[in-house]
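Q: I'm writing up a methods section and want to include an example of the input and output format. Could you take the sequence below and give the corresponding predicted structure tokens, formatted cleanly so I can copy it straight into the document?
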Amino acid sequence: MSEATILVVEHEDKCPPALVGDWLLEAGCALEVCRPYAGDALPDLAAYDAFLVLGGPMGAEDDAKHAWLGPVKQRVRDAVATGLPTLGICLGHQLIAVALGGTVDRNPRGQQLGLLEIGWTDEATADELLGAVASPRRGVQWNDDVVTRLPEGAALLAATGEGEVQAARYAPAAWGVQLHPEVDVEVLRPWAESDRGSHEARGIDQGALLRDIAGAREELETAWRPLAAAFAALARDRAGRRG
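A: Here is the clean output for your methods example:
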């Protein structure tokens, strides 16, 4: 097994790699977490075997408010150009879409919350990364924005019944998922607190929402650990080819 180092971009301290990070470590990868919101400079990708871009509360086009978003999108384009295995989660997925010419907008149907079924397409079953999880399963959603137009050449791998993009392959070695495979209830609690006012106004029972997710912990770990294992395998393969 070749050692592999994955560059992880974290956009906020409340949005850590969490479970996905743990699973990647278990799969034999080393993680280097870059926290540009805390002043970390984004490194060049040449020293890494994979690239993981996490979620965050900002929008994919909020470059003026968050100066690192533009450079992250450039790193995405660099990764695609060199075939570096790349995975985006929620905001990370949206950043990849925008970086490559797609569009992200506020979901006109409103915030997606809680445990949702993943609507896999036929193409997903043979996908090098998401084929490992392309069977009936639920994932945690907690997002306001969605990818409304995929870049040219991207493949839709999962969508809701209303056609909202849940997962895509953006390039031969670049993927994005709208769901949050990395979260547990402890990660979600501060997100819920941030949304408390809007949820109360909409009559959303946050306690019930979090209890449902907590009760599904074993289901979710079983469902999404294979995604991390498949991504780790791509990183190890890249490391082996780099020597």
